Amino acid sequence: MFQLIRYILLDIVRTRFLLFYTALLLLSSIGMFQLDADTGKVLLSLMNIVLIVVPLISVVFSTIHFYNSYEFIELMLSQPIDRRLIFWAEFVATALSLVLAFLVGVGLPLVFYGGAVGGSMLLFSGSMLTVAFVSLAFLSSVLTRDKARAIGLALAFWLYFTLIYDAFVLWVVYQFSDYPLETATLVLVSLNPVDLARILMMLQLDISALMGYSGAFFKLFFGTATGAWFSSVLLVVWSFLPVVIATRIFQRKDL
Amino acid sequence: MNFRTFLTVLLFLLAQLADARVLRVSKQGPFRLLSQAVRAARAGDTISIAAGVYSEPNVLIQKPLFLLGEKGAVLDGQGKHEILTIAKTRVTVQGLTFRRSGRSNMDDYAGIKVHDAHGSRFINNTFDETFFGIHLSNTDSAYIAGNRLKATAANEYELGNGIHLWKCRWARIENNHITGHRDGIYFEFVTNSQITRNQSRQNMRYGLHFMFCDDNTYESNVFSKNGAGVAVMYTKGVRMLNNLFEENWGAAAYGLLLKDIRDSEVRGNRFLNNTSGIYMEGTSRTLFENNLFRGNGWAIQLQASCDGNTLRRNNFAGNTFDIATNGHVVLNTVNGNYWDKYQGYDLNRDGVGDVPYYPVSLFASLSEQIPSAMLLWRSFLVFMLERAEKVMPAIIPVDLRDNQPQLQPHDLHQRSR
Hints:
The complex is a heterodimer of chains A (255) and B (417).
Chain A lengths: L1 H13 L2 H19 L3 H30 L1 H8 L5 H30 L7 H24 L3 H29 L6 H9 L2 H13 L6 H11 L2 H28 L3
Helix pairs in contact in A: 1-5, 2-3, 2-5, 3-5, 3-6, 3-7, 3-9, 5-6, 5-11, 6-7, 6-9, 6-11, 9-11
Chain B lengths: L2 H15 L4 E4 L8 H7 L5 E4 L2 E4 L3 E3 L4 E4 L3 E4 L7 E4 L4 E3 L2 E3 L10 E6 L5 E3 L2 E3 L3 E6 L5 E3 L2 E3 L12 E7 L2 E3 L2 E3 L5 E7 L2 E3 L2 E3 L6 E4 L5 E3 L2 E3 L4 E8 L2 E3 L2 E3 L7 E9 L2 E3 L2 E3 L3 E6 L5 E3 L2 E3 L3 E5 L7 E3 L2 E3 L3 E5 L7 E3 L2 E2 L22 H8 L10 H12 L26
Parallel strand pairs in B: 1-2, 2-5, 3-6, 4-7, 5-8, 6-9, 7-10, 8-11, 9-12, 10-13, 11-14, 12-15, 13-16, 14-17, 15-18, 16-19, 17-20, 18-21, 19-22, 20-23, 21-24, 22-25, 23-26, 24-27, 25-28, 26-29, 27-30, 28-31, 29-32, 30-33, 31-34, 32-35, 33-36, 34-37, 35-38, 36-39
């Protein structure tokens, strides 16, 4: 399996897209640190990158990569290797390369400009979000055979988790505003990796916004060790659940 | 010769002049206890207390005296009773340390309790673990300066207020440091008083708390990290100048809570890193000028019950929300402030933005109605909604706007009194 991962990694690096992605992240992070002296503000801007750009790139790149490696996968399948192994090698290699790109692109400037302590949650959430969206990309890739449709589906996932789902939550909260909604919102938010990542980061960066009566409730939950563990574990679940489902589909799939 | 010794000598000489005596309390005698000296003293005498710890039950003073503590003079209440009670006279207490008064919510034990003692003065005393520190009632023209009060307790009910005044006029309260009490400074029916350069930090409830206290001036005080910040109510003619309100964090913590305040001034203050810089309801005809709001969750929560207030020449920077309100009717004037979130332009280069600034953001209004929605703050959706609302305001109160937003922050160091 390590051999496989190595080959795939080399293949990904050869496309140069990954280097471009790393450079983009590096440039924007450094640029932000240069433009604004306030580390807190920069971290908030970086948070927007983590929440919007990183999932988008991860999901689209992974889908395209999967279809580009279709022939390689078919070739490997003709060998006496377990199907699951090939699929997971693809997943691990893709996720690993994107996470590394993210850590270099955002993590290095963070360490360099001294925001690493406040930004540790940013790096963790960003990495987990990357894995989650690679995972979702693999799911959309096995759900359909057509590359264009798969990319469409991947984009739909992205749109759903960053925008549509939140609109739904807002609508629910608005409709049932006469009821005590704290626990319900908590559950709803847990069902979206982007929201989870956002809240985890906000707890570390922008605590003021979460204050007020409800804020105190959320902070009481997410702010404690249990809450932080809960949301971190949920993020990990989100990272692997889609790919586990995808593996099951892939095993039975007629390529 | 330092100031304190000088003062002691001066008082000593003056006492001689006035045919008053100096009675000395020390472990060696002539008086071994303060109460003995008080009993022996005549009106106008000075009682000088030497270093040492004096544990005696409540000392009652009913004649005009000067109490001077030498360095290291400690009156210990042993956690059982009130330490000093002053009634119907004019007394000066200086340089003493009061330690461990009894704790009782029935009797309101204090380090020094004062009744009807007009013109009394309390200077440079230290209060360690007293229930109430200085407790004045019906005492006009009191002077309380340079005292240090410190208390610790796990629960609010085990604490009294640091400086507590009830029904007093013309008080001057200066340079006191108050930590760990229930309310740092508590006033009820205190009028025409000056509260200057005090520091009230880490008190369990409010740094400053007053009701029915007309025409007082609060200047250059620091209110920091108090449980619920500063809360002031039912008062007119308050002047708050150049104070610092900072780090009041929590679900119900405010830098400054104004409730039913009218005809007042809030000028030159700094509100830094509070959950809510100013929360006001029922506030009328009050001027907010030259204040700095930085790093607050809400800089100002302006409830719709406020009218006739003016906000001008303030600086708003780095707040999550600048202004939140709960209604559409706007009866207040907001003009000529600096807002760091302002994105307009200035074509004629007069330093004033050409398009108005709407300080109430959509999400601030939304979360005011539904606090749970706060969980969506900083999401992509909210960002998009804010943008849409900016282009076409539908939810925010459009009348609440700054028609002359400044492009550069005001230089608040050049402010005038």
